[in-house]
Design brief:
With 295 residues, the chain is an alpha+beta fold. The protein is built from 13 helices and 4 strands. It is elongated.
Length: 295
C-alpha cells in the first residue's frame, strides 16, 4: 500500500491514518470527476470503506477543504469538546487572501490546544500531542509549506513583528513599562520610575490592562522560545541548543566568558526597535539552514 500511495502522494499511509490530508491529490481527483459525479462518490463511498466512521471522516475533511465548514463555529466546537478529529481538519478550511492574520491565529490555536493538554493524564496528553502535530501538517499543506519546520519558523517570525511595538516604553501614571529581551533571549516586564529601574510593579498598577497584557506577552515569548528551540533541534539535531545559545549571544553582542558591562546593557536597551529586529533575526536565521538542506 505504501508504494502504491507514493505514486500519487508524498504523504505516507500512516500519516493518512493519522489524519494528514493531501490537498493537491484531492483536487486532482475532484477536478477530473467534476462536481456532479463527485457528489455521487461523496454519498456512496461508505459502501467501499472499512466502516461508517471512516466515511464520515472523509466527508468531514472534504467539507473542510471545499470551504463548506465555518471556521469560527468549528473552533468553538473544538474548544468545548476537545474534538481531535475536528482539530485535524480545522486547518484545511481555505483562508482568504484578504485575511492575512487568519493562518497565524490558527497556528496559535493549535499551540494553545497542545499546551492545555498538560492538565490531562499521560495517555491523553500523548494522543492530543499527536493530533496537534497532524493539525500542524495540515496547516502547512494549506499554507503551501513543504514541511512543518519551515511553517513554524515563518509564523514565529511573524509573531515577533506583532510584539515589536510593545518593546517601546509606555507611560502609566509616571511609570514606564515595556517588554525587555535579555541576552539569553528570555522576555521580562521592565519597569522604570523617575529614570530608575524598579524591581517590582507598583501596587496600583498590578491590575492595569496594559501591565496584564505585557505580562501575558512575556509568558507567551517564553513559550515561543521553547518552541523555537524544539523546532531547531528537529531540523539540526542535538547540536541545535549550542547553536541557539551562540546565536542569541552573537546577535546581542554578549559572550558567556565576559560578563555584560553597563555599556553593554545601555547599548542593548538603546532602541527597543533594534531589540525587535534582533528577535526577528534570531527566529529567521535557522531558515537559511532549512532552505540549504532542501537543495
Amino acid at each position: 500500500k505504501e508504494t502504491e500511495a507514493a505514486i500519487y502522494s508524498p504523504i505516507t499511509p500512516q500519516q493518512f491514518n493519522d489524519g494528514a490530508f493531501d490537498k493537491d491529490w484531492f483536487f486532482e481527483a475532484y477536478n477530473q470527476l467534476g462536481e456532479k459525479r463527485f457528489q455521487i462518490l461523496y454519498k456512496s463511498a461508505k459502501y467501499i470503506t472499512a466502516g461508517s466512521n471512516q466515511h464520515r471522516r472523509s466527508q468531514l475533511y472534504t467539507d473542510a477543504v471545499l470551504g463548506k465548514l465555518d471556521a469560527a463555529e468549528l473552533k468553538k466546537e473544538i474548544e468545548a469538546k476537545r474534538n481531535q478529529e475536528k482539530l485535524r481538519c480545522y486547518p484545511l478550511i481555505p483562508i482568504s487572501k484578504r485575511n492575512k492574520n487568519e493562518a497565524l491565529r490558527r497556528y496559535e490555536f493549535i499551540q494553545k490546544f497542545q499546551k492545555e493538554s498538560r492538565q490531562f493524564g499521560a495517555q491523553r496528553r500523548e494522543s492530543e500531542k499527536k493530533a496537534c502535530h497532524t493539525a500542524m501538517e495540515n496547516l502547512a499543506i494549506t499554507m503551501g509549506f513543504s514541511d512543518v519546520n519551515r511553517m513554524t519558523w515563518y509564523f514565529e517570525s511573524e509573531k515577533m513583528e506583532e510584539i515589536r511595538p510593545f518593546t517601546e516604553p509606555q507611560e502609566l501614571d509616571g511609570v514606564k513599562v515595556w517588554l525587555e529581551i535579555g541576552a539569553d533571549g528570555d522576555a521580562e516586564l521592565a519597569v522604570e520610575k523617575s529614570g530608575k529601574r524598579q524591581k517590582s510593579i507598583p501596587k496600583g498598577l498590578k491590575k492595569d490592562e496594559t501591565i496584564l497584557s505585557l505580562k501575558a506577552m512575556a509568558k507567551d515569548l517564553k513559550e515561543q522560545k521553547r518552541r523555537a528551540k524544539e523546532s531547531l533541534e528537529r531540523a539540526l539535531g542535538h547540536d541545535a541548543v549550542t547553536y541557539w545559545n551562540k546565536l542569541v549571544e552573537d546577535i546581542n553582542g554578549v559572550s558567556k566568558q565576559t560578563p555584560p558591562t553597563i555599556g553593554d546593557k545601555l547599548l542593548s536597551n538603546m532602541k527597543a526597535a533594534a531589540v525587535g529586529a534582533n528577535l526577528r533575526a534570531i527566529i529567521q536565521q535557522p531558515t537559511a539552514y532549512l532552505r540549504a538542506a532542501a537543495l
